[in-house]
Design goal:
Layout: H1 2-39, H2 43-60, H3 66-74, H4 84-95, H5 98-115
């Protein structure tokens, strides 16, 4: 009888310990996730802030010709851009050299001429 009661007590203690450990792990995991989430900047926020900062730099850059700065300020594809995918496309376009941009635009004109 004594061993049976002792086994039941041990099983009860093991269940309580298991429950406490599971609860502790859940709490620590939740706290860790909350801490990481609070510290992390979402990628979309980072992209939008970086894009806006770069556009403002271009608009303020006196070395950029005035006609380009006016274009950046007025074009929906530059300063007024609200779409994250378009922001990425615009940054990609701006990373091309003038020679590459000219080649791409010439190719587009040629393709439009062929289609007509």
């Amino acid at each position: 009888m004594y061993h049976g009661a002792m086994n039941n007590t041990l099983i009860s203690y093991q269940e309580q310990i298991t429950s406490l450990v599971e609860s502790l792990v859940e709490d620590v995991t939740k706290e860790t996730i909350d801490t990481i989430s609070a510290q992390a900047t979402p990628l979309s926020t980072y992209l939008c802030n970086s894009y806006k900062e770069r556009m403002l730099e271009l608009l303020d850059d006196q070395n950029v010709p005035l006609y380009l700065r006016e274009h950046y300020a007025e074009s929906p594809h530059f300063y007024g851009n609200q779409s994250e995918s378009s922001m990425i496309d615009t940054m990609q376009w701006m990373s091309y050299s003038d020679e590459t941009k000219k080649h791409i635009l010439d190719q587009e004109l040629e393709d439009m001429t062929i289609e007509e």
